[in-house]
Design goal:
Structural class of chain A: mainly alpha
Shape of chain A: elongated
Radius of gyration of chain A: 22 Å
CATH topology of one domain in chain A: Arc Repressor Mutant, subunit A
Distance between the termini of chain A: 38 Å
CATH class of one domain in chain A: Mainly Alpha
Oligomer: homodimer
Order of helices and strands of chain A: HHHHHHEEHH
Strand content of chain A: 5-15%
CATH superfamily of one domain in chain A: Winged helix-like DNA-binding domain superfamily/Winged helix DNA-binding domain
Largest interface: A-B, 98 and 97 residues
Chain lengths: 164, 164
DNA sequence: AAACATAGTTACACAGGATATCTATTAATC
DNA sequence: GATTAATAGATATCCTGTGTAACTATGTTT
């Protein structure tokens, strides 16, 4: 990999213009991705005091909402592959926030049950998340918020014409 | 980690109700994250035929838009840390899409220059991405699209009230 | 009973992203 | 002008999220 060594000036050394990502800005996905990274950082900061990260928080909240859920159902709900949940569930169980109850009906499956502490932690973490999101979106009108959620749902469900 | 073994039924075995992520759906960030994963998959599929992935595609497009750019500037623009770009630039250079030109002005820095093939590939990949996004967003009105982009920018720039 | 399917697990791989540290070089300061 | 500080890029690690393949114990079908 030989490298040229001519007198090619660095961009803004010559023009004084700031470099731009204009082409990428033409894509809605690019804007969504950059906003997502801010929202993800907000979430991480909000739930970190509870020893939770995005996946463990999401899993905990869904288990609290759906006591008795099986791991495969949880994976479907969160749209992740089953193997990715094993360590997450291990972590939540190790922290005493949920329990894996063997079911008699199907001895392969676990019924995931939140503990009292899990229910409490989920509520507190969600409140922290809610507060962080409220701060981040303080200037957002209810109408704009509704549009964003509707569009994100449309994208997620493959409505606007779907892919391929 | 002992596991209980009582007769706790699996959720929908008893209720027949589908499990829900209602609490998570209360957060705008959750909707954005799920949509983002669809958009990311679209992008990956669109640019994969060109041997590009999200980061290499983004870097290539920015270099084409800003010939002579330095790596640190590119990192700032894409909001990633400098070390993460090294392998990406190596890859683009190895594929003959860009060149690292040593500058005489500052012999530490490289001026990143797209090759003719790089310019061509960037154009084709962007067109594929544009087409994929157009399919995905076919049902989206111009107004809704504008709202989404405005809100994402607001979030990215920390306008609606900022964090903390 | 045999074949097949399923729940959870293990092992592995890969992309995206961050930090700390090293080198060559440039800029600043005494 | 020599020493110190700052900068560009590179290297080495590490972490999180996410996916696939294959294994085990069960359950279900045929």
């Amino acid at each position: 990999m030989e490298r040229g060594c001519e007198d090619i000036p660095t961009r803004d050394a010559e023009t004084g213009h700031a470099a731009q990502d204009a082409t990428l800005r033409g894509f809605l996905g690019y804007h969504v991705k950059r906003a997502m990274s801010v929202l993800q950082a907000d979430l991480a900061g909000a739930i970190e005091p509870f020893g939770l990260r995005m996946m463990s928080y999401s899993a905990l909240v869904v288990i609290v909402d759906n006591p008795g859920l099986r791991q495969a159902q949880l994976a479907d709900l969160l749209a992740v592959e089953r193997p990715n949940l094993v360590a997450v569930i291990d972590d939540l169980e190790g922290k005493g926030l949920i329990m894996r109850h063997k079911t008699l009906a199907d001895r392969r499956a676990y019924a995931l049950m939140p503990t009292a502490e899990g229910i409490d932690t989920a509520a507190k973490a969600s409140e922290a998340n809610r507060a962080a999101e409220a701060r981040r979106l303080a200037g957002l009108s209810a109408e704009d918020r509704a549009v964003v959620i509707r569009v994100m749902n449309m994208i997620e469900r493959g409505e606007g014409g779907s892919a391929r």
